[in-house]
Amino acid sequence: MFDLKDADFFEMDEEDFDTVLATDITFSGKISFSQPFMIKGKVSGSIEATSDLIIDTGAVVKADISATRVLVRGIVEGDVTSEKLVFVTATGTVKGNITASQVVLEPGSIFSGRCSMTNL
User: Fold this and answer.
1) What torsion, rounded to 10 degrees, do the Cα atoms 38, 105, 101, 11 define?
2) Residue 96: other Cβ atoms inside 10 A
3) What's this model's pTM, rounded to 2 decimal places?
């Protein structure tokens, strides 16, 4: 494989988060946060963050996302903007544009959109 500076990000579990949107929760509206956040349920609207976001396996997010780092294990329909990293795992799907300084699409992931790698 390859060495990634943000390896700690991938090792984070639900217990590492102060806030987790559980699998049985559906939220519609704008979410803003400044501490790491995990989504396991369904979200529609918009997400603006100054921290990390994990969309867990089974989660469905229909929103434009702006965050420091974004890990996608579930489904995202919307544009994803990150100042550092967007990582889409083999179980992840992104249907929208990705803008980040580093983008990783694991084999098996699904991506439909445009990708721009920039220094934001």
Assistant:
1) 40
2) 17
3) 0.88
Please state, in angstroms and rounded to a whole number, the distance separating the CA atoms of residues 112 and 13: 27
What DSSP assignment string belongs to 20-56? EE-TT-EEEEEEEESS-EEE-SEEEEEEEESSEEEE-
Domain locations along the chain: 7-113
Kindly state the tokens that stand for 66.
Answer: 């702006």
Q: Report the b/e string of 48-69 with b at 16+ CB within 10 A.
A: ebeebbbbbeebbbebbbbbbb
- Two structure tokens written together for 65: 């996302």
Which 8-state DSSP code applies to residue 83? E
Name the DSSP letter for residue 10. Answer: H
What parts of the chain have a pLDDT lower than 70? 1-16, 120
- Looking at residue 4, what is its pLDDT? 47
Number of H helices, E strands in the chain: 1, 13
Q: Which two tokens stand for residue 92?
A: 């992840």
CA 20 to chain centre: 13
